[in-house]
From TrEMBL:
<feature type="domain" description="Transglutaminase-like">
    <location>
        <begin position="171"/>
        <end position="241"/>
    </location>
</feature>
<dbReference type="Pfam" id="PF08379">
    <property type="entry name" value="Bact_transglu_N"/>
</dbReference>
<protein>
    <submittedName>
        <fullName>Transglutaminase family protein</fullName>
    </submittedName>
</protein>
<dbReference type="InterPro" id="IPR013589">
    <property type="entry name" value="Bac_transglu_N"/>
</dbReference>
<dbReference type="InterPro" id="IPR002931">
    <property type="entry name" value="Transglutaminase-like"/>
</dbReference>
<dbReference type="InterPro" id="IPR038765">
    <property type="entry name" value="Papain-like_cys_pep_sf"/>
</dbReference>
<dbReference type="Pfam" id="PF01841">
    <property type="entry name" value="Transglut_core"/>
</dbReference>
């Protein structure tokens, strides 16, 4: 699938801002199954300083500094990219989940995804919720499949319920939240069992109701989970939709939790109160893509 993604963020301030420093993580990752063309980044007012780097987790980060007085800040990223279906692990690497937990504890690069992070803590209540999916000896994939399904079936999507500050245990108790909450919840459950799990930030192509037109700007950022499969790699799950991500899930970046991959964060001098407006559009497009598809399928 080929897409054009437009992600626009605008801040309107109650008082003048004389200086701001910001980091934007709005450039999708290049992966074996996701080819990313150049991203056009439009920032108003024009930054006095800007540069790009790669963070600790391998995500592309654009740093910029606006050094003129302004009452609003607008950041718009436009990217064309192509996706293929994700690879799946072969059956022979799908061992029992206890072995996977032991493997994570012995592997330094996995430990950071096994321990507590700012938005996700290991909790007895999370382990208890996950326990029915992970009886002793069950395969890792069967356990995670079941947990993914249970979250999807047991929780209600409610955009009015939570905020960034809502604790995972509150989401567990209320059985409601949004994609970010469900991703944090599932990560907390997996880590409470000793497994390595990370937060994936990205976009999901949404489809309009039958007979209705697509509305530009009506899409949204999305979040899901990846769990580490020993001797293979990271396998993604989308608890909000009870599915395994495919071509319609576009990966922006990943980290321990949301705090590692916010689309935009920064500090400013002045501004006072502000209003925030975010618009995302994931638009399917036509275009050449055979070379990428053939190369990926042949292992190039």
């Amino acid at each position: 699938m080929r897409y054009r993604v437009r992600h626009s963020t605008r801040y309107d301030y109650a008082a003048p801002v004389s200086l701001c420093h910001n980091e934007a993580r709005v450039v999708p990752r290049a992966l074996s199954w996701q080819r990313v063309d150049d991203t056009a980044l439009d920032i108003v007012p024009r930054p006095a300083v800007s540069h790009q780097r790669v963070d600790f987790f391998g995500n592309r980060v654009n740093f910029f500094s606006v050094q003129e007085i302004h009452m609003a800040l607008s950041v718009t990223a436009t990217t064309c990219l192509e996706t293929l279906g994700r690879p799946l692990p072969p059956a022979e690497v799908d061992g029992d989940w206890q072995s996977a937990a032991r493997h994570a504890s012995r592997t330094p690069e996995l430990r950071q995804f096994q321990l507590d992070s700012p938005f996700v803590s290991r909790e007895t209540a999370l382990r208890a919720f996950a326990a029915p999916s992970f009886p002793a000896g069950r395969s890792l994939r069967d356990g995670v499949d079941d947990l993914n399904r249970r979250i999807f079936e047991s929780f209600t999507y409610d955009p009015e319920f939570s905020s960034l500050a809502t604790p995972v245990l509150t989401v567990l108790e209320a059985r409601r939240g949004v994609c970010q909450d469900f991703a944090h919840l599932m990560i907390g459950c997996l880590r409470s069992l000793g497994l390595s799990a990370r937060y994936v930030s990205g976009y999901l192509e949404t489809l309009p109701p039958p007979g209705q037109p697509r509305l530009v700007g009506a899409d949204a950022s999305h979040a899901w989970v990846a769990v580490h499969i020993p001797n293979w790699g990271w396998l993604e799950y989308d608890p909000t939709n009870g599915s395994v991500p495919g071509e319609r899930h576009l990966v922006l970046g990943w980290g321990r939790d949301y705090g590692d991959v916010p689309p935009l964060k920064g500090v400013m001098n002045g501004g006072g109160a502000h209003e925030l407006e975010v618009a995302v559009d994931v638009e399917p497009i036509e275009g050449p893509g055979d070379d990428f598809r053939q190369g990926a399928l042949s292992g190039i």
